[in-house]
Design brief:
It contains 8 helices and 29 strands. It is α+β, with helices and mostly antiparallel strands and 458 residues long. It has 3 domains: 184 residues, Aminopeptidase (3-Layer(aba) Sandwich); 89 residues, Immunoglobulin-like; 111 residues, Immunoglobulins (Immunoglobulin-like, Sandwich), CATH 2.60.40.10. The strands form 8 sheets. The chain has a 6-stranded mixed β-sheet with strand order 2-1-3-6-4-5, sandwiched between helices. A 5-stranded mixed β-sheet has the order 16-24-21-18-19, with no helix packed on it. Strands 7-9-12-11 form a 4-stranded antiparallel β-sheet. The N terminus and C terminus are likely disordered.
């Protein structure tokens, strides 16, 4: 019922475009750069960049409001606003577009004038469309250079959760440009170009999407699935995974629920914490803002193994005998989960925790009196799969936990004599760091220290 209500609210976003108010329903946050004690660049005759930025932003705000847009500004007077505060305002307001208005400067007196539009390189949806549109509208005058579109790492771009661009409309350090920025005509001309660029991108309502999931989404399957709803027909979904993995995502329309879709991956995801960064494209060429979904994949423990330091134990050995517990998933791959476990050996129980790589060392304290095969069983907490695809997440109600045997190892006791001395034969040691090493260990001089040192070498 909740999902259906949300879907209907999504469909309500598909408002008709009013020719007289082409930006009706669009929320734009304008950010006049600098201000107060931070004047920014200063022109040849003393015009402060902070003043020019505020004037352009005011004109632009009036023009956008005339087009029906909802407009707010990070500052409306000559006051200082920190970069952090500007981003916090954007996060709290959640606009459709954040435009930071600036003007550039150069120490070279012969520098040519040009405009520059910066966008966050990690979000190539609405910001890149806006940058392209602004660059097309800011046609250079005679003697000016072509407008540049530049991926930027400015604080207000890289830390912004909403689509954001930063404009450098011209070089205030050039006397003729400064003169223009002192006049109403020059200010309104720049603002008008930004206005028309924004109108072009939002000619059609943007794609608005809601992904139905908890944040973070916790799943116990290598193939998580998510339902999302949009305000228009979706033609393409672009998904970027962090950390980067070899993956493929597809989506399918769910016709019984209007413009609702199922998003799923075609390649299994191993255990780990991910961020899904998604862009949704409409059939009319529009695009959504970047949607980020944190996902925790916690695959059930299956087919885990215990790797002894040697395939057998010499009879009468007195000292520590190490084993390595390696967690695996149902596909036999390393399952990098931190898991508490109990290792049972005879009447002894050892408690431990696997590291972030899904591995742990277990040491058997041999007394030399052991007889027959030595069996070690490891019990760990497993999850009972429940709901669609199993486990916690958007498609299920979560799983219960119980303890079960996740690994078992039996090591034979042997006795080998070479001449007058007893040796452990050349054996293969598998260490936690994932590589093999050969060691030649002698007995009876072998004790806890020498075994431990050998195990930890490399």
């Amino acid at each position: 019922m909740v999902i259906c209500a949300s879907i209907f609210s999504i469909l309500a976003w598909a408002f008709p475009v009013d020719a007289a108010k082409p930006l009706k329903g669009i929320f734009i946050l304008l950010d006049p750069g600098h201000g107060g004690s931070d004047s920014g660049a200063v022109g040849p005759t003393g015009l402060k960049e902070s003043t020019a930025n505020l004037r352009v932003a005011r004109y632009l705000g009036m023009l956008l409001k005339a087009d029906g847009a909802k407009v707010k500004m990070t500052r409306e007077t000559d006051r200082f606003v920190s970069l952090k505060e500007r981003v916090e305002i954007a996060d709290n307001e959640s606009p459709d577009l954040f435009v930071s208005v600036h003007h550039n400067a150069s120490v070279r007196k012969t520098a040519a004038n040009r405009a520059e539009i910066y966008f966050n390189a990690l979000e190539q949806g609405i910001p890149l469309k806006i940058a392209d549109s602004m660059a097309a509208g800011l046609t250079p005058k005679k003697g000016d250079l072509k407008t540049e579109i530049i991926p930027g790492g400015f604080f207000v771009l890289r830390n912004n959760q909403c689509p954001a661009v930063l404009t450098e409309g011209s070089y205030i350090s050039i006397k003729s440009v400064e003169r223009g920025l002192k006049s109403s005509r020059g200010l309104t001309t720049e603002a008008q170009k930004f206005r028309m660029a924004i109108r072009k991108v939002f000619e059609h309502p943007p794609v608005r999407v809601e992904v139905f999931s908890k944040r973070p989404a916790v799943v116990t399957t290598a193939f998580p699935r998510f339902i999302f709803a949009a305000n228009k027909t979706i033609s393409r979904v672009q998904v970027r995974l962090q950390p980067n993995r070899d993956f493929e995502f597809s989506f399918a329309h769910l016709p019984i629920l209007g413009e609702s879709y199922l998003l799923y991956n075609n390649k299994p995801l191993p255990t780990g914490s991910y961020t899904f960064s998604m862009l949704f494209y409409g059939i009319d060429g529009t695009v959504s803002r970047l949607v980020k979904l944190p996902v925790q994949v916690k695959l059930p423990i299956k087919n885990s193994v215990l790797l002894p330091v040697a395939p057998y134990i010499a009879t009468g050995m007195d000292g520590d005998f190490p084993l390595t517990l390696v967690l695996q998933d149902a596909n036999g791959r390393l399952n990098p989960r931190s898991l508490s476990f109990n290792a049972k050996w005879g009447n002894k129980t050892f408690r431990g925790m696997t590291n972030s790589e899904g591995k742990a060392a277990i040491v058997l304290p041999l007394t030399g009196k052991e007889e027959g095969p030595q069996t070690v069983e490891v019990e760990g907490e497993s999850e009972v799969e429940g709901g669609v695809e199993g486990g916690e997440g958007p498609m299920s109600e979560g799983g219960a936990a119980f303890r079960e045997t996740i690994a078992k190892c039996t090591i034979e006791l042997t006795f080998r004599v070479f001449g007058k001395r007893v040796f452990l034969i050349l054996m293969k040691i598998r260490l936690n760091r994932g590589f093999d090493k050969l060691a030649f260990l002698s007995y009876p001089k072998l004790g806890p220290t020498s075994i431990r040192n050998c195990f930890q070498q490399g």
